[in-house]
Each structure stands twice: as structure tokens, then as C-alpha cells.
Write a structure and sequence with these properties.
The complex is a heterodimer of chains A (355) and B (100).
Chain A: H1 9-18, H2 21-35, H3 40-51, H4 55-58, E1 69-73, E2 85-89, H5 98-118, E3 130-136, E4 143-145, E5 150-153, H6 164-167, H7 169-183, H8 191-213, E6 225-226, E7 240-241, H9 273-276, H10 282-295, H11 303-314, H12 321-335, H13 338-350
Parallel strand pairs in A: 1-3, 3-5
Antiparallel strand pairs in A: 1-2, 4-5, 6-7
Helix pairs in contact in A: 1-2, 2-3, 5-7, 7-8, 8-10, 10-13, 11-12, 12-13
Chain B: E1 2-9, E2 15-21, H1 27-38, E3 54-60, E4 63-68, H2 74-85, E5 90-94
Antiparallel strand pairs in B: 1-2, 1-3, 2-5, 3-4
The chains are: A alpha/beta (355), B alpha+beta (100).
Chain lengths: 355, 100
């Protein structure tokens, strides 16, 4: 059977389920090829969930035995060069390149947070290797999760300080949490589901930062900033603020409540941010801040656990803000009852999602 | 030829618009620019990108191609890299939802 790499996911699933060894191998190769293209996340994510196919079986990136973290140097190449040249693996000593060590250490801190706090073994819950590539592109101003690995540019062009992406623990935890979301709720990256996807990454980004610092939840804004110091100073102090959405930098349009919801289309126009996923995430972000600071203590222990169970066990790909609010209230009642349920309910009410 | 490149998405969700016209360039650079621009083929139907992935909309004399970082064809990448390196380009930062 000839399998083209643009074969639809259900055909590939059929080939994997029902085909002979050659057809199954061809289907997996097709998925691997398409994974380098646009269909990657949709195809891989759906198949991971429905067929229990291990990402390692797809050989999208080299998998090393006994390895939990690997960092590659993309050597300023583009997507066709990923993951690049292996420069550090688990148990290797630090190298001379700071970006490599930062990516390695932050992946480890994020892994330890999910394992020690929520009992989760890596992004997929099954020990998936954390693969990172640094020095992607030329002064590339971004870091992203491409469905199978982390990709870090160097920045230093227009918006971001050089080296910002690997230096910021919360940014790395944010990106790795997109992987957790991919393997759990699978929130679509569009409109309200996309804003929830972004928000969960911001929430766990700051929780990893707070956990690493042993910080309690209070109104100190520094604890609630995502990417503090990542932007060039003329633009602002951080990418986002969970405490005060809309104030982190010059172009920050995040609303804190539904009254300020920004109705943007998801129309393929890069200006519209997939329907405002980085804009309206301010609303659930602020709900988390309100609940966490109302309760005090370590935010990851109670409200963080409520958000984690909601993400990993209660939401589906098309979840709306109201679904997330209802689910977090339910989880708060089931896990803690009393003051936690009240704090979560009050938080969603104050941001206008619950009446 | 006139080229407009809008880069959006990314972890900040901000868009940057770059514009460059061939009549702003010296002759040798102009020839390179027009060769690279002519190689861009129209493309649309951008599927949902990966979280925080950069998205691109490249317009060459009214013909538009939209891509994501993980689908960007090498000829389009070459044009983007060329424009990004030229001091003659004009650029504007566009917070989400704000027009040009």
C-alpha cells in the first residue's frame, strides 16, 4: 500500500491498526514526514491518544536509551535541520554554551515539578524524553513547542533580549506545559480553547518558578510575571502579568475580566493571534491569581492541583472559559471542599466567567 | 516589486510588519530581491499552528502566502531573511488585533 504523507489521520490510523508490518511502517513514516509539516500536532496528538502510539516509535527525533533530557544545537539552521547536533544528554556535565545548560536545567526543574508535585512522569505522563534544540535560526525571536520537542531561538533582534528564551525558567515551563496540554486536554489552539491552552501554560510556568523559589502566593507581582526581563527594556518588564493583565509591556492588551474580552477572528491573519489566544488568556490567568492569593500558602498545593486535575482529566479540545470554570469548581469541591471551592468560585465570578 | 511580511504568534502573540520595495534598493540588491520575491508562490489555508509557533503572511505585489514556522518553504524563508537584513526595510510592531 502506498501511503502519501498527506494521507488523512483516519487512513493512517487504519493502516496502523489493520495493516501488515510494511503498511504499519509506511504509515508511521508518513506520520513522521507530516510531523515536519503543518499536520504534525493534529495527527500526532490524535494518534497518541487514540492508538496509544509512543512518540519514540515515530522516530521524529533521535531517542537515546536511559535519557530523560537531551539538548541539541541547531547551529542556526531552520526546521529542516532539527533537532541538530547533540551537545548534552542526561548525566553529561555542563558544557561551555550557557544556552545549552539553561535549557537542560530548566527542563529538569520542570520535569521535577510535575513529578514531585503531581506525580506526572514527563510531558506525556509516561517518561517521554525532553528534547530541546537551542540556537534555532538567526536571531530568531521565539521559543515554541513543535509537537515533539522544544525549539529556542537566540532573540536579540527587535523584541527580546539575546538569550532570553533559555534564561527564563517560567518561559521554558510554559512551553513544556503546552506539551502536557497536547497529551491531556488537547485544547485547540484557537479562540477560547486556545486562550485556555495559553493560560494553563502561563499558570504552570509561574508555578514552576514559584516552586523553584519556594515562594508563597501573595500579591508580590514579581511572582506572577511571565518572562520577566525577556523583553528589551524599552518594551516593558515582562510578557504577561497574572496579577495585572494588560500592564506587562507596551503592547499588552490582555483583559483581566470578561468585560474586556477582545473578540478577534481566527482567520489565518498573523495579526489576529489565532483569535486572541495570547490576549484573552488574561481572563483565566487572573482567575487563577485571585484564587491562589485568596488562599495563600504554596499555590501549587491546592489551587495548582485543582488546575492540574482540570487540565489533565476534565477538559476536552473545544473547552470554553465557562467549561474550565465549572470544572475547576467541581474539582476544588471534590479534592478540598470548603474554602478552596469558595475561592475558586469567587475568582471566576470576579473575572465575569461565572455569574 | 513590493513585499510585505507580517510575522505573528510567538510566545508574545505580537505581530511585526516589515515592508520593502525594490525601488529602495541599490541595483545588485534589487536584482536579488526581485529574484527571491518572484519565487514566492501563493499559499493559504493555514492550519492551526503549534502553540507559540511563529506564523507568516508574505505578500508580493498583492499575491499572498501564509505559512507557519514548521511549514515555511525555503524560498519564502530566503526572502524573509533577505528583507530582515536590509536596512531599507520599514517595520512596525502590531499588538494583536491592531491594523496596519
Amino acid at each position: 500500500m502506498a501511503v502519501c504523507f498527506i494521507a488523512p489521520p483516519d487512513l493512517l490510523a487504519y493502516a496502523i491498526d489493520e495493516g501488515d508490518a510494511a503498511e504499519r511502517a509506511a504509515a508511521l513514516r508518513a506520520i513522521a514526514a507530516s510531523a515536519a509539516l503543518r499536520a504534525q500536532r493534529q495527527v500526532v496528538g490524535a494518534l497518541m491518544r487514540t492508538l496509544d502510539v509512543d512518540v519514540g516509535a515515530l522516530r521524529l527525533v533521535p531517542q537515546l536509551e536511559e535519557s530523560r533530557r537531551t539538548v541539541y544545537d541547531a547551529e542556526h539552521g531552520g526546521r529542516l535541520e532539527l533537532p541538530g547536533r547533540l551537545v548534552r544528554a542526561e548525566h553529561d556535565p555542563p558544557v561551555a554554551d550557557a544556552a545549552v545548560n539553561e535549557a537542560f536545567d530548566a527542563a529538569g526543574t520542570t520535569y521535577a515539578f510535575y513529578r514531585d508535585v503531581y506525580g506526572r512522569d514527563s510531558i506525556d505522563g509516561a517518561g517521554m524524553e525532553l528534547v530541546s534544540s537551542v540556537h534555532y535560526g538567526v536571531r530568531y525571536e521565539n521559543a515554541f513547542w513543535n509537537g515533539v520537542q522544544m525549539v529556542y531561538g537566540d532573540g536579540g533582534d527587535q523584541l527580546f533580549v539575546e538569550g532570553a528564551f533559555t534564561r527564563a525558567l517560567d518561559v521554558i515551563a510554559h512551553e513544556l506545559t503546552h506539551g502536557v496540554t497536547q497529551y491531556t486536554a488537547g485544547l485547540q489552539y484557537s479562540l477560547q480553547p486556545g486562550a485556555l491552552n495559553e493560560s494553563f501554560s502561563d499558570v504552570f510556568g509561574v508555578l514552576v518558578k514559584q516552586y523553584a523559589a519556594g515562594a508563597v502566593a501573595d500579591s508580590d507581582e514579581a511572582k506572577w510575571l511571565v518572562g520577566a526581563g525577556a523583553l528589551m527594556p524599552r518594551w516593558g518588564r515582562a510578557l504577561r502579568s497574572l496579577k495585572a493583565p494588560g500592564t506587562a509591556w507596551e503592547g499588552d492588551r490582555q483583559p483581566a475580566t470578561m468585560d474586556g474580552y477582545v473578540d478577534l477572528p481566527d482567520d489565518n491573519d498573523p495579526r489576529n493571534d489565532n483569535g486572541g489566544v495570547h490576549v484573552n488568556s488574561g481572563i483565566p490567568n487572573h482567575a487563577f491569581y485571585l484564587a491562589a492569593t485568596a488562599l495563600g500558602g504554596y499555590a501549587w498545593e491546592r489551587v495548582g492541583r485543582v488546575w492540574y486535575v482540570t487540565l489533565t482529566d476534565r477538559l476536552g479540545p473545544s473547552a470554553q472559559f465557562a467549561d474550565a470554570a465549572a470544572a475547576t469548581v467541581d474539582v476544588a469541591r471534590e479534592l478540598f471542599g470548603g474554602d478552596v471551592e469558595r475561592a475558586v468560585t469567587d475568582a471566576w465570578t470576579r473575572v465575569g466567567v461565572l455569574a | 516589486m513590493n513585499v510585505e511580511i507580517v510575522r505573528g504568534g510567538g510566545i508574545a502573540g505580537v505581530a511585526v510588519c516589515s515592508r520593502l520595495a525594490s525601488d529602495a534598493l541599490p541595483a545588485p540588491a534589487c536584482r536579488t530581491f526581485e529574484r527571491l520575491a518572484a519565487a514566492v508562490e501563493p499559499a493559504g489555508g493555514l492550519a492551526a499552528p503549534h502553540p507559540d509557533e511563529t506564523t507568516y503572511r508574505v505578500t508580493v505585489d498583492g499575491v499572498t502566502a501564509t505559512h507557519t514556522e514548521t511549514t515555511l518553504p525555503p524560498p519564502v524563508r530566503a526572502l524573509i531573511d533577505f528583507v530582515s537584513a536590509r536596512p531599507e526595510r520599514r517595520e512596525a510592531l502590531l499588538p494583536p488585533g491592531l491594523g496596519l
